[in-house]
Structure formats: C-alpha cells, structure tokens
C-alpha cells in the first residue's frame, strides 16, 4: 500500500502559460515537467523567481515542488509556477500576510495587445507619406 503523503496544489497562470503545481513536505527538490528546474528553465534567474514565495515565507528546503507547465514561453511559465507555488503555500499553512505583502497572490493580467486592422502591429502605424 502506498504511504499517505500530504500534497498541496495550486494553479498559476501568466500570459499564455499555465502551471499546475504540487508541493509536499520534503527536502527542496524542484522538478518542472519531470526535469530539474535549472535544466528546464535554463537560467538561474527564472528558477529564483519561481521559488520566491518560499524565500518570503522562510520555508526554503521544506517542500518538494512538482510543476507541470504548458503554453507560453519560459519566462511566462516561471511566473505561472510562482503563482502556483504561492497558492499551494496558502493551503499548506498560514502564510497569507507575507505572500499578500510581497504581491505573490495577484495574477499578473498583462498580456500581448491584439493587432488592429489598418496597423502593422498593435499600435505601430504605416509610414506616412506627404507626397
């Protein structure tokens, strides 16, 4: 019979990226789509951004993180994992004041603006010719 381990989960979104994050008491292992986080993201800065909620709540190394990311790019996925981790920490303990103060519970609503007809991009106009 499998042993009972407590698993806390949270879903994070950023731009087009979606991350389904599970945290469980452990040693601080961080896997994204089955790979170590640094190998998946390729930059330590993105890994640090994703793990920021643990630093704010002083829980570094106390939880193992399993994240499943889909859509968007690596920067958006890192932001999505950060929100997912923060939401999972809410269920794991009483960390709401610290996470709220750091702004980790707010979904970043910024996204790419749509292209408008008659323009080259969202706001860039075609070159004006007087003659």
From TrEMBL:
The cross-references to PANTHER family, in alphabetical order and at most eight, read: RIBOSOMAL PROTEIN S9, SMALL RIBOSOMAL SUBUNIT PROTEIN US9M
Asked if the record carries the keyword Cytoplasm, the reply is no
Q: Which Pfam families match?
A: Ribosomal_S9
Query: Which UniProt keywords are listed?
Result: Ribonucleoprotein, Ribosomal protein
Q: Which GO terms describe its cellular component?
A: ribosome
Q: What family, per the record?
A: Belongs to the universal ribosomal protein uS9 family.
Q: Which InterPro entries match?
A: Ribosomal_Su5_D2-typ_SF, Ribosomal_uS9, Ribosomal_uS9_bac/plastid, Ribosomal_uS9_CS, Ribsml_uS5_D2-typ_fold_subgr
Q: Which NCBIfam families match?
A: PRK00132.1 (NF001099)
Q: What is this protein called?
A: Small ribosomal subunit protein uS9
Species in which this protein is naturally found: Kribbibacterium absianum
């Amino acid at each position: 019979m499998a042993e009972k381990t407590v698993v806390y989960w949270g879903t994070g979104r950023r731009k087009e990226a979606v991350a389904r994050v599970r945290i469980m008491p452990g040693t601080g292992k961080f896997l994204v789509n089955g790979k170590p986080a640094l190998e998946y993201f390729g930059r330590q800065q993105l890994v640090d951004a994703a793990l920021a909620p643990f630093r704010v709540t002083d829980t570094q190394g106390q939880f193992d993180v399993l994240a499943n990311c889909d859509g968007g790019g690596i920067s958006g996925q890192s932001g999505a994992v950060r929100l997912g981790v923060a939401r999972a920490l809410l269920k794991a303990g009483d960390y709401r004041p610290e996470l709220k103060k750091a702004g980790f519970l707010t979904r970043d609503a910024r996204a790419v603006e749509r292209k408008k007809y008659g323009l080259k991009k969202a706001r860039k106009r075609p070159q004006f010719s007087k003659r």
